[in-house]
Design brief:
The chain is an alpha+beta fold. It is built from 10 helices and 11 strands.
């Protein structure tokens, strides 16, 4: 079985950046099939463009743009890529980084798909910082990554304790976030009181309903900005924003720069 060392990924790596225990790679996937293998370090895979199927011993993931996966160190998996341009961003984490920040690298086991839009947005922010590559990059990316691990720890602790309605509303919002939603109708579908939904949503999702929906919209827009020739107005409407100005404002609040500047970074 192939073992990939630090910074090694199957495909054409167009950019690699080392940052005191973290290695960032921007890679075009070129292999239609990659047999079972593992990496010596734990890492995140963030699919920027295209599609890929990844399988491990427990699950198979159909990954499209915006998918975020975490892989524990030495966790075996394989990949299948269709005939489309596919590009991934990786955050590889050395053993010393975990030790220096007092995080057990075995606290997160196996490979899993991270669907939390807040964590996905933090990953986009790390990607943005690697493209800006200014004097504050080390401070920025380390802070963002520690925030990601903090949120993952919270999720791991609370997932089994969360009531059933939290899973139902998450699925519902992901399916219909581009539509106009009504609190009373959502509560009726979930069979809970609107006041209960309004009060307890923040408890389990760490933001209010409106913020969560806006994060889902921004995430969708980011995947479109990577591989779409659509105008900002069209992307805004596709993602459920009322107009371009609302889209730009929400995008800047979550990513820190405008959609146009972000798109220019990709060039």
């Amino acid at each position: 079985m192939n073992t990939l060392r630090n910074g090694e990924f199957f495909g054409q790596t167009n950019e690699i950046l080392d940052c005191n225990g973290l290695t960032f790679t921007d890679t075009e996937y070129t292999h239609p099939y990659v047999d079972w293998h593992y990496h010596e370090n734990a890492y995140f895979t963030f699919l920027l463009e295209g599609h890929v199927t990844e399988g491990n011993k427990k699950e198979v993931y159909d990954c499209s743009a915006g998918t975020l996966l975490y892989h524990c160190w030495e966790d075996t998996h394989y990949n299948i890529k269709p005939e489309v341009f596919t590009r991934g961003f990786h955050i590889e984490i050395a053993k010393d980084w975990f030790e220096n920040h007092q995080i057990s690298r075995d606290s997160l086991e196996g490979s899993f798909n991270i669907k939390n839009p807040a964590i996905q947005i933090l990953t986009y922010q790390i990607f943005k910082e690697t493209k800006l590559n200014d004097l504050n990059i080390e401070l920025s990316v380390h802070q963002l990554l520690l925030n990601i691990f903090s949120q993952l720890k919270q999720e791991t602790k609370s997932q089994e304790k969360n009531p059933l309605w939290t899973r139902k509303i998450d699925e519902l919002l992901r399916e219909s976030f581009t539509e106009k939603l009504n609190l009373t109708q959502l509560a009726q579908i979930l069979d809970i009181h609107p006041m209960h939904l309004s009060r307890d949503f923040h408890k389990y999702f760490h933001c209010n309903l409106g913020d969560y929906i806006r994060k889902l919209k921004v995430n969708k827009s980011l995947s479109l900005l990577h591989n779409s020739q659509e105008s900002l107005t069209d992307i805004a409407l596709d993602c459920g924003f009322s107009d371009q100005s609302h889209f730009i404002r929400c995008f800047r609040e979550n990513i820190g720069i405008t959609p146009l500047k972000y798109k220019n970074l990709l060039k």
